[in-house]
């Protein structure tokens, strides 16, 4: 039996625990740590999983999933350092933090796998990218992929690409939410009730995403299928191009990548 402990049971940590349960793991195979006693009691009641201290998690678990905020990583690593060894697998879900940080702070030989998930994990539709550290074996990577497959889709990328992944898919849901928010406001501006505008846009987003996922058509082809000559859509596209929306997206994602790099360098 492989025991998995999630260190930090926020939204992502809880979503992973729920996914692992749904994927067939028993509550006895899972542990979590949580600083707030009320939150810990709530999760234990909801899932039947034991909330423990970091020291107990390190002692009992084969896999330690670090799901704290990047700025909180140093005290966690300081606590883990005397407790883990090469027999423990450390999985980092912390944006921007390289495997080399864990390898410097933890004993020599501890395997680390870096993961960039995203918030659709809470509905079982995460996009996660994994990268092994220097001590992680293919078997470690396979185990992490198996875990993450319970909450969405998984790809493996070289760690050098993780900052780009963070900017693109890690932050990506926020860009879509921002766009949907703006489109709902546009519907209200055009005289639609908010509830109607929300339903129109959200279902349009769901349908468009499903078409992208299931038709294997390039986004350009799908867009052109909606864009009739001299029609409404091409007039809208002209305004988007006039206002530099494409360039703004490129710049925004590049800025997110740069911030991910900064987060990693802050711990050098």
Automatic annotation (TrEMBL):
It is found in: Cytoplasm. NADP(+) binds at residues 67-70. The keyword Oxidoreductase applies. It catalyses: L-proline + NADP(+) = (S)-1-pyrroline-5-carboxylate + NADPH + 2 H(+); L-proline + NAD(+) = (S)-1-pyrroline-5-carboxylate + NADH + 2 H(+). Keywords: Amino-acid biosynthesis, Cytoplasm, NADP, Oxidoreductase, Proline biosynthesis. The keyword NADP applies. InterPro entries: 6-PGluconate_DH-like_C_sf, NAD(P)-bd_dom_sf, P5C_Rdtase_cat_N, P5CR-like_CS, P5CR_dimer, Pyrroline-COOH_reductase. GO terms for cellular component: cytoplasm. It holds the Pfam family P5CR_dimer. Belongs to the pyrroline-5-carboxylate reductase family. NCBIfam families: proC. PANTHER family: PYRROLINE-5-CARBOXYLATE REDUCTASE, PYRROLINE-5-CARBOXYLATE REDUCTASE 3. This is Pyrroline-5-carboxylate reductase. It comes from Amycolatopsis methanolica 239. The lineage of its organism: Bacteria, Bacillati, Actinomycetota, Actinomycetes, Pseudonocardiales.
